[in-house]
Amino acid sequence: MSVREYDLGSAELEVLKVLWEEGPSSVRTVMEHLARRSRQVAYTTVQTMLTRLEQKGFVRSNRSEAAYVYEATVSRDEISQSRLRKLLDQLYDGAAGQLVLHLLKTQRLRPREIEELQKLIERLDAAQAEALIADGTISGGMIPKVRAAVETVERGVRAVRITNLDGLRRGSGTVVVADSPAADAASGIEAEAGRP
Predict the structure, then answer these.
(1) What is the 8-class DSSP label of residue 82?
(2) Among the three residues 74, 95, 113, which one is the final residue of a domain in this structure?
(3) Which structural domain, as residue segments, surrounds residue 141?
(4) What is the spatial distance between Cα 69 and Cα 187, in angstroms, rounded to a whole number?
(5) N or C: which end of the chain has fewer CB within 10 A?
């Protein structure tokens, strides 16, 4: 699916942020919210920005009352997706995993964000795994491990984890195991990565 590219300046983005957070708002309301964010902008400047955003199709106005009320027509997610796609293409040749790894190495995540990220990783399905292999996000020795994990799930195990057992067992290496001791014992499935 192609992502539409949105051409927005930083001041226009600040105005859109107010509309996303506050909902439909008048020029004065937007101006006051910008001022609270330490961005002093004249009423006429905000009005001009909203008019330009409307001309670009990012907002619409309701002119039924004395003060125009403006509402965002694009979501924060749409803008985020467009900007991230552009960043991915410019800096990482479209490889999302490289961006995620960079962020994980350089930025501090809150516990809630780490939990959310873990849940997304746990829900990785076969198609997503193959896409990550194709774009180079998963590479090298991880490819057979991920493929073995996906195949194990396809054979009926509800969830798997990839565990490195170096030094813990004879024939050490990375194995794919069912995601709980009970499920592990009940399924009898413990496929060595690359040898399902």
Answers:
(1) H
(2) 74
(3) 126-192
(4) 60
(5) N
Phi (first) and psi of residue 147, to 5 degrees: -65, -40
Total domains in the chain come to 2
Tell me the one-letter amino acid at 164: N
Domain with residue 41: its CATH number is 1.10.10.10
State the Cα–Cα distance between residues 22 and 66, nearest whole angstrom.
20
Query: How far, in whole angstroms, is CA 20 from its chain's centroid?
Result: 18
**Dist CA 41 CA 34 (whole Å):** 7
Pairing of strands 59-62, 174-178: unpaired
Main-chain dihedrals φ then ψ at residue 175, nearest 5 degrees? -125, 160
25-26, strands of its sheet edge to edge: 25-26, 69-72, 59-62
pTM of the model: 0.59
Residue range 85-115, pLDDT digits in tens: 888 888 888 877 788 888 888 988 888 888 8
Rounded CA-CA distance 192/103 in Å is: 31
